[in-house]
Amino acid sequence: MAGSVFVETPPRDAEIVVVGGGVAGMSTALFLARAGRDVVLLERGVPWGVASGANAGTLSLQVKRAEVLDLCKLSLDVWRRFGAEMDVDVGFGQPGGLRVATTDAEVAHLREYSDEQRGGGLEFEWLEGNQLRDMAPWLSTGVRAATFCSGDAYASPLLAGGSLIAAVAKAGGRIVGHAEVTGLSRENGAYRIETTKGATRAKILIITAGPWSGGLARMLGVALPIYVDVNMLSITESAPKLLDRVITHIGGILSLKQLPNGTILIGGGWQGRGRFAGMEKFADHVRLGQNLTTAVSVVPDLAKLRLVRTWAGYEAVAPDALPAFGRLPGTDDAYIAAAARGGFTFGPAQGLLMSEMILGQPPSTPIGRFDPARLLTGAHA
Amino acid sequence: MTGFRITDGIDRGTAFQFTCDGEAVTAYPGESIAAALMAAGHRRTRVSARSQMSRGLYCGMGVCWECIMVVDGKPAVRACMTPAEPGMKVQTQHGVGPGDGA
Amino acid sequence: MRETDLVIVGAGAAGLSAASEAAKHGLSVTVLDDNLLPGGQYFRRLPTSYRHTKETVFDKERARADALYATTGQKGVTYLNDAVVWEAPEDGVLAFARGADSGRIRAKLTIIASGAHDRPAPFPGWTLPGVVTAGGLQNLLKGQRVIPGRRAVVAGNGPLVLLVGATLARAGAELREVVEAAPILKRLAGSIADLLAMPKIVRQAADYRLAIMKSGAKLRTGWTVIEARGANELEEVVLAPIDEAGKVNRSRSRTVKADLLVVGFGLMPSIEMVRLMDCKLEWKPLRGGWVPVRGANFETSRPGVLAVGDGAGIGGVEMALREGKLAGVIAAERLGKLSRDQAASLKAPIQSEIAKVETFRRGLERLYAMPPAFLDLLTPETIVCRCEDVTAGELRARQDAGFGSTAALKGTTRTTMGRCQGRNCLRTLLALIAQASGQPIDQVMMPRPRLPARLVTIGDLLQEELPPIEMPKDPHLPRGEQVS
Ligand SMILES: Cc1cc2nc3c(=O)[nH]c(=O)nc-3n(C[C@H](O)[C@H](O)[C@H](O)COP(=O)(O)OP(=O)(O)OC[C@H]3O[C@@H](n4cnc5c(N)ncnc54)[C@H](O)[C@@H]3O)c2cc1C
Ligand SMILES: Cc1cc2nc3c(=O)[nH]c(=O)nc-3n(C[C@H](O)[C@H](O)[C@H](O)COP(=O)(O)OP(=O)(O)OC[C@H]3O[C@@H](n4cnc5c(N)ncnc54)[C@H](O)[C@@H]3O)c2cc1C
Ligand code: FES
Question: pTM higher than 0.95, yes or no?
Answer without folding.
Answer: yes
